[in-house]
Amino acid sequence: MSEKSTPQLILDKAIDLSVNQTGSGFPISIFPSKIQKIIREVNDCYGFPIDYVGAAMLVAVSVAVGNTHLARMKEGWDESAILYMALIGRPGANKSHPLSFAMRPFVEHDYEQNRIFEKQYLEYQDQLEMSRKERAEKGIDVCPREPVRHRFLVSDITPEGLSLIHSQNRRGLCLLSDELSAWVKNFNRYNNGSEEQFWLSVFSAKPTMSDRKSSRSSIFIKRPFISVIGTMQKRILSELAKGERSANGFIDRILFVILKHEMSNRWSMKQPSFDVADEWQNILSRLMCIECAYDENNDILPVIVPFAEEALERLFEWQHNLSDKCDTEPNETLVGIYCKLQIYAIRFCLIIQMARWSCNDAGKDVIDLISVERAITLAEYFMESAKKVQTILKELSLTAQQLAIVTALPPEFTTGSAIAVAAENGMSERALMEFLKNFNGKLFQKSKHGNYIKL
Questions:
Q1: 286 and 181: one domain?
Q2: Fewest C-beta atoms under 10 Å: which of 77, 224, 292, 371?
Q3: pLDDT digits (tens, 9 = 90+) for 365-389
Q4: 409 in the same domain as 282
């Protein structure tokens, strides 16, 4: 079944076309009109780049959903809403403010919960100082239980500490890092590769166990949910590709958000026409307030959300087409990215459906065709972003001479013209041919004998 040009999908395309004309590539049409309105307003009044705002809101919805709902592809195959995302840009690209805006409802929630926890903990300490008899006389439990701090957000933390917090907040968490490079650099701070493996496992929602001496006790989390989001400068991107991270697929799990055109923020005199923070709080709160059912082991019993038949057919059609592309793609790095985006597309379907429900635009008992089409649009946006990141990583690994040659080469060139450009930059013909060979499928693509295309 091919994409249907329904009135809604035609409108979606028109919305994205109008946004593209402003220099943004993020498809805000994936969101209900209420969220679109917020994105446009903060862009107009505060100068927050649409890509950063939209992407951060996407992660916020994912965190609010957490383990409460799963998208069911078929029996035995359920996907959660876990996302790993990096907002990429130069210093001063206005990355942090959109992230703070999108995550503010969680900050407010966690702040209030921390106040409640501090009060409860003081009462708990007072109860510990009482005798058993005094507790009984006051109607207090003979063995007081230490209170739990309920939260959505964590920052710089070890896997052991995170496992403990997650065991107390099984609905799900978000690792929020203003500088995501710190998250990556900490992977080998204790045991070589152990933290990286932890995050590879969490991405797939595989059970996690913590038996370290530093832990309070053995912790087993049947279905972890930890989304990750943060900012990163372009020049730090190479940190992500160090060691085994390119080979083990870690970098393929990260959704990158890169602006088409990076421009310094211009202050605007324009005032918001409505309370954008309050409106966003109301939308997200409906998801945050979803009641969870628990089993006898205190594990969440998620609501299973199936796909409508035509929606599933469309998703399978898209996946088959992408698989065909993988079979002919010479660049193995891109193949890895395409494979992870197939999984992400399912997660996008769930997140988009839940966002529509939170705005009263749709139900949440089934994932429909509109959510699937929008998820596909979003997957293709991140596909293009991943290609840009790969290009940046290759450029960061180039020598000054190689970079000068790549910059000087036209979009399409012949071997002869490349030799001439190389000679102008002091590179021999033999070195050039080796350069073209090593970066074929990465920086260049051989279209036919003696002809190349810059990727």
A1: yes
A2: 77
A3: 999 999 999 999 999 999 999 888 8
A4: no
Angle between helical axes of 96-129 and 276-288 (0-180°, round to 10): 50
Q: How far apart are CA 174 and CA 226, in angstroms?
A: 5
What pLDDT, on a 0 to 100 scale, did the predictor assign at position 211?
65
Cα 68 to chain center, whole Å?
A: 18
Domain tally, the chain: 2
Sign, CA torsion 203/209/213/214: positive
345 inside domain? no
- Phi, psi at residue 397, to the nearest 5°? -90, -5
Say what the pTM is: 0.85
In tens, the pLDDT along 5-52 reads 677 778 877 887 777 767 678 999 999 999 999 999 999 999 999 999
**Can you spell out the DSSP letters for 170-214?**
TT-EEEEESSHHHHHHGGGSSSTTHHHHHHHHHHTT--EEE--TT
CB 283 within 8 A of CB 359: yes
DSSP 207-239: -EEE--TTSSS-EEESS--EEEEEEE-GGGGGG
Higher per-residue confidence, 200 vs 278: 278
- The torsion angles phi and psi of 177, rounded to 5 degrees, stand at -135, 120
The boundaries of the domain holding residue 425 are 400-454
> Is residue 280 assigned to a domain?
yes
Q: How far apart are CA 323 and CA 3, in angstroms?
A: 17
Which is more confidently placed, 223 or 91?
223
CA atoms within 13 A on the CB side of 62: 27
Phi, psi of 69 (to 5 degrees): -135, 145
Q: Is residue 84 part of a domain?
A: yes
